[in-house]
Amino acid sequence: MTIDPLAPERGAAEVVESWDDDLRSADVLEFPGYTAPASADESVRTALVDLAGSPAVWIDCDFRRSGGTMGAVAGVRIVRAFDRASAAGLPVVQTVSTGGARLQEGMISLLQMPRTVSAAARHAAAGLRSAAYLRSPTTGGVFASFASLTDLRAAQPDATIGFGGPRVVAEVTGAYPPPTSHTAESALGHGLIDAIVPPEECWDWLAAAVGAADGGPLVLPEGRPAAPDTSPSRPDPYDHLIRARGALRPSGLEWAAWLTDSWTGIGGSDPAIRAGIAVLGGRRAVVVAMDRFAGRTPGAPGPGAFRLAQRAVRLADRLGLPVVTLVDTPGADPRPDSEAGGVAREIARTLLALAELRSPSVCLVVGEGGSGGAMALAHTDHLLVLDGAVFSVIGPEAGAAVLYRDSARAPELTRALRMTPRDLVRLGVADAVVAEDTAAVRAAVADALAHARPGARDGRPDAATAAAVTS
């Protein structure tokens, strides 16, 4: 049996067994003028599929069948699909286009929101993966329930995406939403989805998103550094810091591309931090990379960036995947709107996510490690530092302004703070210094992952602190 022709372009997927084909709504409201659709015309169909050579459970909600609305039959099929996947240890993939609740079934329709969410929660609690491909339109109660709870979500270009459909918005507010709202592109920019994928690539993306296949490589933006920094090292600590900040020096995103063999992005609203499920040294891992060249204040992560980091780490924890973080930032975004957005709280929550992580973790400081914004990604079981990087309690310019009321004394403070790689190892802050060579870094990160012991992240700071205390 082949995949239903109403589904998106199929790529690599084939139906093995369709489920619950005999169910039909009983029309309990006896809604005037409503005839419950035939079983084959119901909005949701479910099946076991062969996805790129691996079994998976497929939930298809299609606007072309009864408007993609979720009634009792849809809810039963969805819940049973999740529970079958949980019992069999299989991932769930979804293709969704929907108008939301089935109004002719009233509150029975609305009850399917919590029912499907509970089923999705049971599947997630089993440590299983899920992904959704959202087509146009995707609105209402389906979008506000199981379809938004998948690990990863992609959308069709230009798709209408939103809780309230445009007509509902116009009725409630008196005006239709602007063209920049309720779109896949807006959802991507706000971190509500992870990618925009053309229909012909839908199944390839879904396969990568649930680990049935590897994703493509991480593609760097134009004009980025093409190789590690080969400029001469500088013995003076302040000169070393200036070199670490150099415009031609690669940041975390470059190192993420060079260290990984595949990348399936996890979306966020602030590109100062990027994240993805990747293949690194032959094993899948979650990679979280700071990007010094991106963000509203370039290189300074705001609250949204740290929320992405938390999401990525929590996903790794649930799936049992190791975490690699790449640090390069002068510090967190200090602007008033960042403060109002809770940047301090989000840094704390990022540290908490790493503290609670049950799988191994490794941090590599690739450039400037600045203050708490950098430490948010550095609470890992193993901490490596490139030999051209730095890590400091504060940027020396700001620190000199605080201590001396004179930022011109930054070179003096840089020397006093002992922020160079070998100073960091000597203080017990870092485990090792790594040469700035792609092969050497790949080998060092792979070795650290192989030997990292979950929970060791507390031992290093405890030992460094103990050495700094006298009685």
UniProtKB/TrEMBL annotation:
Domain named CoA carboxyltransferase N-terminal: residues:
1-228
Q: What are the entry keywords?
A: ATP-binding, Cytoplasm, Fatty acid biosynthesis, Fatty acid metabolism, Lipid biosynthesis, Lipid metabolism, Metal-binding, Nucleotide-binding, Transferase, Zinc, Zinc-finger
User: One Pfam family, short name please?
Assistant: Carboxyl_trans
Q: Does the keyword Ribosomal protein apply?
A: no
Which co-factors does it depend on? Answer: Zn(2+)
- Localisation per UniProt entry: Cytoplasm
Its UniProt entry gives the catalysed reaction(s) as:
N(6)-carboxybiotinyl-L-lysyl-[protein] + acetyl-CoA = N(6)-biotinyl-L-lysyl-[protein] + malonyl-CoA
Domain (CoA carboxyltransferase C-terminal) ranges: 227-451
Query: Which EC class is this protein assigned?
Result: transferase
GO terms under biological process: fatty acid biosynthetic process; malonyl-CoA biosynthetic process
* InterPro entries in alphabetical order: AcCoA_carboxyl_beta, Acetyl_CoA_COase_a_su, Acetyl_CoA_COase_Trfase_b_su, ClpP/crotonase-like_dom_sf, COA_CT_C, COA_CT_N
Task: Give its E.C. classification number.
Answer: 2.1.3.15
Gene Ontology CC terms: acetyl-CoA carboxylase complex
What molecular function does GO assign, one term? zinc ion binding
Copy the pathway line from the protein's UniProt record: Lipid metabolism; malonyl-CoA biosynthesis; malonyl-CoA from acetyl-CoA: step 1/1
Similarity field: In the C-terminal section; belongs to the AccA family. In the N-terminal section; belongs to the AccD/PCCB family.
Q: What does this protein do?
A: Component of the acetyl coenzyme A carboxylase (ACC) complex. Biotin carboxylase (BC) catalyzes the carboxylation of biotin on its carrier protein (BCCP) and then the CO(2) group is transferred by the transcarboxylase to acetyl-CoA to form malonyl-CoA.
Q: How does it assemble?
A: Acetyl-CoA carboxylase is a heterotetramer composed of biotin carboxyl carrier protein (AccB), biotin carboxylase (AccC) and two subunits of ACCase subunit beta/alpha.
- Specify the protein name: Acetyl-coenzyme A carboxylase carboxyl transferase subunits beta/alpha
**Protein species of origin:** Actinocorallia herbida
